[in-house]
């Protein structure tokens, strides 16, 4: 419905028509303030959604990189711990061998040393 207000009684007028895409209302409201504002809000909402999606994707990628770094660090710690355990085992075996050789030498047994 469209009400036209004029300065005199003869200039007052009211028009109405069914709402549809081919109606006069649609033609008159093509560039209305409400329509421009609504389109602007819709576009801002779309941009916000795109931003949030990109932000979430970036966050997922950063988390994947962090998880990968953590996995590599864990693997490296495991490798170093195994190497250290192997060195300790070799050192313990060497110490046991040296202690056995000394014990046999002290007891007067035959040894490979002499």
Describe this structure in words.
- β1 (2-4) and β2 (13-15) form a beta hairpin.
- The longest helix has 74 residues, at 33-106.
- A two-stranded antiparallel sheet has the order 1-2.
- The mean pLDDT is 82.
- It folds into two domains: 1-30, no CATH class; 31-105.
- It is 69% helix and 5% strand.
- The chain is rod-shaped, with a radius of gyration of 44 Å.
- The protein is mainly α and 114 residues long.
Please work out how many helical segments DSSP would assign.
2
Spatial strand sequence of the major β-sheet: 1-2
Q: For the terminal residues, how far apart are their CA atoms? A: 121 Å
Proportion of helical residues: 55-70%
The domain count comes to 2
The chain-level structural class is mainly alpha
Q: Strand content of the residues, in percent?
A: 5-15%
Task: List the topology elements.
Layout: E1 2-4, E2 13-15, H1 24-28, H2 33-106
Question: What labels would you give this structure?
Answer:
single chain, 2 strands
Brief description of this entry?
With 114 residues, this protein is mostly helical.
